[in-house]
């Protein structure tokens, strides 16, 4: 179905910028649609890429443009260690090469081919594994990796070294990389030397470099969540398409700044009420009963209804004469 809407802005705006603002497509995608004659203003085909739409004008995307945007593929991939996310160096294998029919988990309406231009939305270095999103969708790319994106990503990290509260405080909001202060991070202990990181930015090898600054060495790192999208039970080396509903939810999380990061737990120690004035914890002026010494009973008096112990006099034992 063709997309159509009437512009009601106070000032004229470039068509590509307005389409990007509306979440229809990226500016680059809008320019490509205009170049192919797939955009109309008040029923006339738009031919000028820099055209500014004015208040009251109606923009329409043709059926072909709508199908082109709807057919953009977005998928989630469980990247193994040793696979690179982006452009490979000689001898390296890029993640996009593993997106085939054989590695599909479940069903997909289309299998990526040579005509698809899948790009990784976010870094995940060669030594790490976990959730990686690849997409042709410019709007989704802006939401995930744009300069103003604050969509959170969750990682489970195993480290070597002493994990102290002082180091956790520094990891949360006391470090800078490349001369720039890092955004606050949610860092908690899962168990032992396994930590949970929730970040809202993606610097190059950020978690590994953060840990280096506090004398912790990363020995395993897996990304388990991007916004509302979780790795869940997707096997390593497998991929599945991202549904339209999941795409909308990703955009909603980014736009509204949703977070699943838990607050750092604070241990509350219950306080005992002080005894009333003049009273001692063990009773009114009485000393608490101490533990009996040795094996002696606590009291020699028999308890009520307890039978008294009677001594029995034994007869002399017969002696056998020695032969």
TrEMBL record:
Biased composition (Basic residues): 310-323
Keyword terms, alphabetized: Isomerase, RNA-binding
Catalytic activity line of the entry: a uridine in RNA = a pseudouridine in RNA; uridine(35) in tRNA(Tyr) = pseudouridine(35) in tRNA(Tyr); uridine(2604) in 23S rRNA = pseudouridine(2604) in 23S rRNA
Keyword Signal: no
RNA-binding S4 domain: residues covered: 13-74
Enzyme Commission number(s) from the entry: 5.4.99.21
Annotated SMART domains: S4 (SM00363)
Coiled-coil residue spans: none
Presence of the UniProt keyword Aminoacyl-tRNA synthetase in the record: no
PROSITE patterns: S4 (PS50889)
Recorded GO MF terms: 23S rRNA pseudouridine(2604) synthase activity; RNA binding
Any single GO BP term: enzyme-directed rRNA pseudouridine synthesis
Segments of this protein annotated with the region Disordered: 264-323
Alphabetical list of CDD domains matching this protein: S4
Descriptive protein name: Dual-specificity RNA pseudouridine synthase RluF
Organism, as annotated: Hyphomonas johnsonii MHS-2
Origin organism lineage: Bacteria, Pseudomonadati, Pseudomonadota, Alphaproteobacteria, Hyphomonadales
């Amino acid at each position: 179905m063709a997309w159509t809407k009437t512009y009601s802005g106070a000032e004229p705006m470039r068509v590509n910028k307005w389409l990007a603002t509306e979440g229809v497509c990226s500016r680059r995608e809008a320019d490509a649609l205009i170049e192919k004659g797939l955009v109309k203003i008040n029923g006339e085909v738009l031919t000028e890429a820099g055209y500014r739409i004015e208040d009251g004008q109606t923009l329409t995307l043709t059926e072909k443009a709508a199908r082109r945007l709807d057919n953009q593929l977005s998928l989630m991939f469980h990247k193994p260690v040793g696979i690179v996310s982006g452009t490979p160096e000689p001898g390296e294998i890029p993640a996009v090469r593993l997106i085939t029919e054989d590695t599909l988990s479940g069903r997909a309406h289309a299998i990526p081919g040579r005509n698809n231009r899948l790009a990784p939305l976010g870094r995940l270095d060669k030594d790490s594994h976990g959730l990686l999103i690849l997409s042709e969708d410019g709007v989704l790319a802006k939401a995930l990796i744009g300069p103003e994106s604050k969509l959170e990503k969750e990682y489970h990290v195993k480290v070597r070294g002493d994990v102290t509260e002082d180091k956790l405080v520094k990891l949360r909001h006391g470090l800078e990389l490349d001369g720039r202060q890092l955004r606050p991070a949610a860092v908690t202990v899962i168990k032992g030397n396994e930590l949970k990181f929730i970040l809202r930015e993606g610097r190059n090898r950020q978690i590994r470099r953060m840990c280096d600054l506090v004398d912790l060495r990363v020995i395993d790192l897996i990304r388990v969540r991007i916004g509302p999208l979780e790795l869940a039970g997707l096997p390593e080396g497998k991929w599945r398409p991202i549904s339209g509903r999941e795409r909308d939810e990703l955009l909603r999380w980014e736009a509204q700044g949703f977070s699943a990061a838990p607050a750092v737990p604070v241990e509350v120690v219950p306080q005992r009420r002080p005894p009333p004035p003049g009273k001692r914890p063990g009773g009114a002026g009485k000393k608490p009963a101490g533990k009996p010494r040795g094996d002696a009973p606590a009291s020699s008096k028999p308890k009520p209804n307890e039978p008294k112990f009677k001594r029995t006099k034994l007869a002399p034992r017969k002696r056998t004469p020695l032969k």
